[in-house]
Amino acid sequence: MTHTTSNGPLPDATTNDELDALANAGALRPIGQPLGGGDIADEDELRAIMGERPNLDSPRATGAGASARRQVRLPESLNTALDDYAAAHNTTPSAVIRDALEAYLASA
């Protein structure tokens, strides 16, 4: 890899110590744009970004804990039908299961 300074490219043989010295002296310039979405407003937003699953009773992660989780085994044909239905309706299998269970329990 060739590194760049304000005076031009550095040879591949440049050591980490030499690069560190150049960086500390401000002689290296960035290549490209940094990745990221800007400033983080608060700890709740940081938790949401870091992947904490949202509580389904809240529109986004709140740090108050994840929603309850259940696992079920499905026959292959039912699992395939669920995936096909979710894809056709632009939703997720989990959302379909939640909606179906809610409708079933409301009618029981």
Can you give me a brief rundown of this structure?
With 108 residues, the protein is mainly alpha-helical.
Give a structural overview.
This protein has 108 residues and is mainly alpha-helical. The protein has two domains: 58 residues, no CATH class; 32 residues, no CATH class. The protein is built from four helices and two strands, in the order ββαααα. The chain has a two-stranded antiparallel ribbon. The chain starts with a strand and ends with a helix. The mean pLDDT is 76.
Alpha-beta content class: mainly alpha
Largest β sheet strand count, sense and barrel closure: 2 strands, antiparallel
Number of domains: 2
Q: Give the fraction of residues assigned to helices.
A: 40-55%
If you average the pLDDT, what whole number results? 76
Order of helices and strands: EEHHHH
Stretches where pLDDT is under 50 for at least 5 consecutive residues are none
Strand portion = under 5%
Gyration radius, to the nearest Å? 25 Å
**First-to-last CA distance:** 66 Å
Shape: elongated
Strand order within the widest beta sheet: 1-2
Count of DSSP strands: 2
Number of helices: 4
